[in-house]
């Protein structure tokens, strides 16, 4: 594939040039932004089994991480504070390390079947408060820590992206088998995947077994 290079003649370099491409922001788009969790935002969060958290590393590199659990896994501590349990993962700890260096985070809450999403921005901190962690136990297993977010910006995002993508439409679902498995992709990119199909199937099966044993 030929390397792409941006033509500087068409680059947008400042906010004035950017805003010149668009109509003025609708008044409601500005007014809808709240500084705390109202009743509708709280209800949305209680229904959500999934969110993405955006963080930034000390050297300015952006990162987005998915978080999922049973419906309502994010605890609403008060109108300005949320707590997100940190479940077992790959132990890269990218988001957590980033939060220690830069507490500013962005959250996107998603509810299956809903085309609108909830955006929450704020400052995060990490805690091992045993009472809080115990309250977020699943299958009698408490998380090792929680991400506590002090909320300063909340608003619902419109449905256009989900409508355009047909995200929840089964008629647009793709066949996962048309791409290699997760493990094979990673092995292809690193040490190399085994050529023997039976060996590869065993590695895939081991991952599925690990999912069952280590979700919590």
TrEMBL record:
Domain (Pyridoxamine 5'-phosphate oxidase N-terminal): residue spans on this chain: 39-158
InterPro entries attached to this UniProt entry: Pyridox_Oxase_FMN-dep (IPR024029), Pyridox_Oxase_N (IPR011576), Split_barrel_FMN-bd (IPR012349)
Pfam families named among the record's database cross-references: PNPOx_N (PF01243)
PANTHER family xrefs: FAD-BINDING, PUTATIVE (AFU_ORTHOLOGUE AFUA_6G07600)-RELATED
Organism domain of life: Bacteria
Organism lineage string: Bacteria, Pseudomonadati, Pseudomonadota, Alphaproteobacteria, Hyphomicrobiales
Protein name listed in UniProt: Pyridoxamine 5'-phosphate oxidase N-terminal domain-containing protein
């Amino acid at each position: 594939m030929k390397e792409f290079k941006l033509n500087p003649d068409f680059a947008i370099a400042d906010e004035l040039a950017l805003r010149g491409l668009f109509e003025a922001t609708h008044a409601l788009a500005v007014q809808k932004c709240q500084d705390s969790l109202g009743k509708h935002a709280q209800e949305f969060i209680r229904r959500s089994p999934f969110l993405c958290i955006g963080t930034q590393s000390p050297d300015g590199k952006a990162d987005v991480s998915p978080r999922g659990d049973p419906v309502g896994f994010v605890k609403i501590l008060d109108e300005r504070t949320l707590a997100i349990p940190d479940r077992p993962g790959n132990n890269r700890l990218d988001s957590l390390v980033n939060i220690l260096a830069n507490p500013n985070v962005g959250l996107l809450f998603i509810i299956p079947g809903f085309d609108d999403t909830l955006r929450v921005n704020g400052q995060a901190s990490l805690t091992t408060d045993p009472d809080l962690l115990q309250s977020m136990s699943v299958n009698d297993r408490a998380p090792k820590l929680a991400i506590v977010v002090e909320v300063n910006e909340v608003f619902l995002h419109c449905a256009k992206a989900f409508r355009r993508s047909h995200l929840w439409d089964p008629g647009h679902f793709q066949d996962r088998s048309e791409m290699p498995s997760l493990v094979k992709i990673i092995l292809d990119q690193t040490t190399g995947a085994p050529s023997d199909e039976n060996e590869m199937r065993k590695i895939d099966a081991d991952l599925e077994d690990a999912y069952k044993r280590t979700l919590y």
